[in-house]
Amino acid sequence: MADRNWHAGSTILISVQAVVCLACTAAPARAVALSDQFASSGHVGRLDPGVIWEALIAGVAVSAFLAAIVLWIHSALRRAKRAQLRRNAFVSSAMNNLNQGVVMTDAQRRIIFCNDRYIEIYGLSRSDLWADMTGYDLLKLRRDRGVLGVSDDEFYEKAASHNGLITELPDGRAILVKYYVLPNGGSVATHLDVSEQRRLSRQLASTKQFLETVLDNVPACVAAKNIEDGRYIFANSAYERFWGFSRDYVVGKNARELFAPASAATIEATDRAALEATDGQFRNQFEVERGGTQRMVASIRIVVRNESNQPEFLLLVFEDITDRRSLSQELESTKKFLELVVDNIPVALIVEQVKDGRYLLANRSAETILNRRREEATGLTASDIFNAKEAKLIIARDEAAIKKRGMITEEHPISTKDGLRLFLTRRATVLNDSGEPQYLIKTHEDVTDRRQTESRMAHMAYHDGLTDLPNRAAFLQALTQMIEACEGTGEEFAVLCVDLDGLKEVNDVFGHALGDKLLIEVAQRLQDAARGGVVARLSGDEFGLIIDGKQPDAGLALAQQLGHALAQEFQIDGRAVRAGVTTGMSIFPHNGADAASLLANAGAALFRAKQKSRGSISLYQPEMDQQIRDRRVLHQDLSKAIKNGELSLAFQPQGIAGHSVAETEIIGFEALARWQHPVRGQVSPAEFIPIAEESGLIVEMGEWILREVCREAASWPKPLQVAVNLSPAQFMHGDVVGLVHSILLETGLAPGRLELEITEGVLIEDFDRGLALLRRLKALGVRISMDDFGSGYSSLSYLQAFPFDKIKIDRTFVMNLGRNPQSAAIVRAVIELGHGLEMSIIAEGVETIEQLAFLAREGCDGVQGYLLGRPKPIEQYAGLIGRAETMELALKTG
After folding, report:
1. Which has the higher per-residue pLDDT, 623 or 811?
2. 61 pLDDT more than 50
3. Pairing mode, strands 840-843 and 617-619
4. Which residues are CB-neighbours of 432 under 8 A, at least 6 positions away?
5. Residue 868: pLDDT over 90
6. Element (H or E) spanning 627, and its range?
7. How many CB atoms are closer than 10 A to CB 707?
8. Which of 94, 270, 485, 655 has its CA 20 to 30 A from that of 889?
């Protein structure tokens, strides 16, 4: 454009110069013409020379004047040209220093200007442009260079729109192009780099979205309103949920347009209070009406100011505390309830302040050990309450617990008004926020009775309940210790198995009660004769003894002494009773190197002695292994019996303990296996069950028994319970849980009707595995009971580890009820123990009305024994299971 202006100025200057030159030339010519004219007329001579000079001088002056005018015009034109050039240079410099590219075209779309910023933006150079280049040429150049991705039409259409065209360059920059058409047909296009603005815009949008998301996920209701008109400008999701309004509905409205009049007035009053607050914040609680109900809200309002520190809008946050207030009231009620509970728990509770050792709280049960009312103990220390010796011990233990900062449990005696009692004390330290001890919580539980019961239970684990002699487990333990003491020393000792002759006859003639008394008397005579040796009751009428000294002389001498001692008649309940003994003996180390072998060989010798004659004494001989061979034959017969269907089931009733048989309601049966041998006849379970367990046949037998029992019980009209014994071998071999589950599904028996009886042997063999299997069985819905409780180890830890449904008291304890105070105490203790553990108790071997009445008085849950019924085929108990009634009904209706 500057060049074009410069050309126009040059043309004017030339024209002016030409006019001046013509004027200067014309003046002398005119003068010459005049002079010629004058001369030709003959008047030259007549002219005054002064006039001529004046004319010449005038002509020169005129010429000079004209020349001066021309020179002035020329100078003015040159100044105008320089001014125009300066203006063009300024405009060009200004356009080239803009932060946006500029391209101008004329009406023919020819480019008449392109600034440096444009070239820089698109990576072009001045040499890329040429004269008469059009806008289309420039767009093609950019497209070839990869800095334009749209067609020409799309470019001009979008660039001419209100928003312009955003062009994305390969390096990530964004260029905003705007195209304007000028009135003369030309155009101007601007190209602005908006990469940073777009980044900031995206960041702002992201930040705005993030903040809105955060506010939408705040559980409290958040809203904002203009201070000027009180209209809402924002509301979060919690606000929408609380009021039931959408935010689009809320924004732009004030409180009176949204809420009930009373609620709106309360809200406006709260807003005014916030605006008038000196710190720009206001907290309060007030009621609002929502959906026809009154809700209590806790609110905080904050005045937000602009950069001029002028209030701009009001931010309000509130939450519904209606339920919380209800919970607070409920919490207060719960607190009172818990205080009542704490006061009435049977364990003494004391809370002590660590810094000075003063008691802050004590419940009613603590008054026993404090020997005063709890209100009187508050604020006192141990030194103020207990004597110096006890206080010193208590303070030392308290300090140890505080130092440990954990739980310390110990047992120690404490003097009470009832005398010296044993307490289980637990001390727990409570730390403050800084991690320092603040309180010491102490609980004292009176375990005197429990420990006495456990002591009795421990005694029961290793002693016979009737005679109080060591039982088989204790005997084997003593035998093992004796072997360890004598091993490698060359010393000998004898093991005697003594069988009481005539006990069965006494029981049959005089009853089991007198038979039990006979056993007690026999035990006493055996102990007297043994003179300090080990004496144990191995089974019902079998005893075991250990005697050291030179063998077999010492053993034989003792056996003869036993025979003489028991040969003398017994006076029991005014009756003369006679008994004898048959003895088998084995010697260590000749007849066995371990307890089981010695006892088994002594048993084999006893078996030989019985075969020989009652009252005889037999030493073990190797040929006695024939007995073992006989057992093997019996084992083979038993294996065939299982396959040939020689086994059968007998059922013995179980009832709820009543004061008489008539008052005892039958609630179920225990299923017992019976074997009718084709040659030997009826084989006792005491004979074939041990063989089955030792050989592993018990697994196959147990599966048959369980399936037959469940099938039979499922057919009973009355839904009575049925109990089945499971052997420890069944737990150790095979999937007992899967077996029980499949049989229940197969037979359709309800799991709650099946009771599985186990001995502690299940847990002794493998405690963890046995416990896991019992829990899985219980999960099936069946009931689990511990059988023969008190006859073996019966560790209380088993009862603690697994919630048995029932405990069965062994018959040896029940038989002596009414005659032996120790048996009564043990039965009573077992009942109390079971009920304390929320387990049912059933007593086996109930044979007299007196035993039944005693068990009913003591709260025993169930009974089983000959008094209710002997083990018989279920057909003989048809009336009890409902079959007789069903048949009678069928006959009547048929």
Report:
1. 811
2. yes
3. unpaired
4. 438
5. yes
6. helix 626-644
7. 15
8. 655
- Do the strands 806-809 and 580-588 form a parallel or antiparallel pair, or are they unpaired? unpaired
Q: What is the pLDDT of residues 264-281, one digit of tens each?
A: 999 999 999 999 998 888
Nearest to 525 by CA among 570, 468, 565, 568: 565
Whole-number mean pLDDT of the chain? 84
Count of other CB atoms within 10 angstroms of residue 695 = 17
What's the farthest any 2 CA atoms get from each other in the chain? 216
What contacts 24+ positions apart, CB below 8 Å, involve 509-516?
A: 510/575, 510/577, 512/815, 512/847, 513/815, 513/818, 513/819, 513/848, 514/572, 514/573, 514/575, 514/577, 516/466, 516/815, 516/816, 516/819, 516/820
CA contacts within 13 A on the Cβ side of 702: 29
pLDDT at 6 over 50: no
pLDDT in tens, 161-185: 988 998 889 988 999 999 999 998 8
| Cβ 55 vs Cβ 30: under 8 Å | no
User: DSSP character for 872?
Assistant: B
Q: What is the DSSP string of 516-546?
A: HHHHHHHHHHHHHHHTTSEEEE-SSSEEEEE
Main-chain dihedrals φ then ψ at residue 596, nearest 5 degrees: -65, -40
Neighbours of 158 (CB within 10 A): 17
Return the DSSP state at 159: H
Instruction: Note whether 585 and 618 are within 8 A (CB).
Output: yes
Residues 500, 149: Cα–Cα separation, whole Å: 116
Q: 225 and 256 in contact (C-beta within 8 Å)?
A: no
Predicted confidence at residue 416, as pLDDT, reads 75
CA distance 594 to 582: 24
Q: Angle, nearest 10°, between helix axes 626-644 and 697-714?
A: 40
Helix (H, G, I), strand (E, B) or coil at 278: coil
- 788-792-795 Cα angle (round to 5): 100
Contacts of 396 (CB under 8 A, 6+ apart): none
Alpha-carbon distance 715 to 651, whole Å? Answer: 15
What residue spans of 222-321 are helical by DSSP H?
Answer: 237-243, 247-250, 255-258, 261-276
Residues 150, 153, 154, 156: is their CA dihedral positive or negative? positive
Is the dihedral angle over the CA atoms 361, 366, 367, 372 positive or is it negative?
negative
pLDDT at 24 over 60: no
Residue 651 to residues 202, 753, 812, Cα–Cα distance (Å): 86, 15, 21
Q: Tell me what the mean pLDDT of segment 57-68 comes to.
A: 82
> What is residue 12's three-state secondary structure?
helix
Q: Which helix (H) or strand (E) segment is 797 a member of? A: helix 796-801
Task: Tell me the average pLDDT across 506-531.
Answer: 89
Tell me the per-residue pLDDT of 637-648, one tens digit each, with 9 for 90 and over.
888 888 888 899
**Are 418 and 433 within 8 A, CB to CB?**
no
Q: What are phi and psi of 358, to 5 degrees?
A: -90, 145
Q: At 123, phi and psi to the nearest 5?
A: 70, 30
Cβ 401 vs Cβ 428: under 8 Å:
yes
- Asked if residues 380 and 359 have their Cβ atoms less than 8 Å apart, the reply is yes
pLDDT band at 523 (very low <50, low <70, confident <90, very high): very high
Give residue 715's identity as a one-letter amino acid code: S
Q: Which residues neighbour 522 within 8 Å (Cβ) at sequence distance 6 or greater? A: 467, 500, 543, 566, 570, 579
Containing H/E element for 842? strand 840-843
